[in-house]
Model the fold of this input.
Amino acid sequence: PPQCIPIHANVTSYDWRPLIQSTSFDAIMMDPPWQLATANPTRGVSLGYSQLTDTDITNLPVPKLQTNGLLFVWVINAKYKFTLDLFKKWGYTYVDEIVWVKMTVNRRLAKSHGFYLQHAKEVCLVAKKGEHPEGFAGNVGSDIILSERRGQSQKPTEIYELIEKLIPNGKYLEIFARKNNLRNYWVSMGNEVTGTGAPEEDLLAVENNQAPQGAVYGARNK
Done:
């Protein structure tokens, strides 16, 4: 998109200070690459990305990027409580949630693997910091999104449209964005936003037989 602002970076090593000093975002959305509970948690489903520990996610400077605004965090079942606790730690108040019900092209449930039940939804928790941002317009959309399943980690266009209705003409930031998530008037940060491979510092780490900063696999979580 011609008006998108991609920042190709590893969020755990990125120098956030210039961005923090330059603006305060009205809406931040993030889809963290949660570290899963076991070394083989997906029952045959391959993950196309590395995962971050809870500590790395906690250390993100999200509170410094907002004064008054809304935070949207996509969660997996095992991270509900952690995310609610993280809201408190960061100085946010939980206010709502959005459920994306995944559909096939034939408008059937797009079910995928789960441990107890097959999963056909994703949940985005919503929290508020400070006051409502300028121009906030509540009660403008549903907390349910019925939309076709996308590629791995790709979220529905409707979530961006909903946020833009809630906060018209706002300042929007997406953390852990990918190339297929780029959108006009959003700052989109992540190590896959360009579609040209990992950031230079991550490639250098691999060349030196090291993992990119923050990248982990398996059950260990500190």
In short: Strands lie at 5-8, 27-30, 69-75, 93-103, 121-129, 144-148, 172-175, 186-190.
